[in-house]
User: Fold TetR family transcriptional regulator from Streptomyces malaysiense.
Amino acid sequence: MPAEASTSRTPSPPLTERQEARRRRILHASAQLAGRGGFDAVQMREVAESSQVALGTLYRYFPSKVHLLVATMQDQLERMHGTLRRKPPAGDTAAERVAETLMRAFRALQREPHLADAMVRALTFADRSVSPEVDQVSRQTTAIILDAMGLDDPTPEQLSAVRVIEHTWHSALITWLSGRASIAQVKIDIETVCRLIDLTTPER
Assistant:
């Protein structure tokens, strides 16, 4: 399907309970295959077989492997968000809490490097046809950061800082996965960029 046609997709109606269960099986199969062998191990036919859905049905949910893996990343971030809500980050300042949150998320990805690599590669390969899925990843990441900040109604300046933090976190993932940055360097970069939060947050 041409990218121009895909970008005009209308919002899908809410999934039924059965459809949602099927979607969850698909995402679980995707994560398992990626966790074992990375991006190349995620083949749509194998995902369909593993999740017990017809191949045509799989393509109706996810038009390509990139769509599927970006959706898998959103699902993984959503799971992380639930864990973080159950055990909120410590820290006296918003910057410290966000830095701890992002490092906890980073370490969760570190435990499954093949899965992390597959999801990040999918984000890198995503064109405009995958914009809705990429936007969901961005919204989920933003929600995680805002929760750590303790903000329900951020200012434009704070949202701008959050976007810069998201970009830095994503870049840190890429440089770590490619072997060009150590965990220690990633931590320093994350802590440094998170100081933007204190600069945009008025003292109470």
Summary: The two ends are 52 Å apart (CA to CA). Residues 65-200 form a domain with the Tetracycline Repressor; domain 2 fold (CATH 1.10.357.10). The longest helix spans residues 65-86.
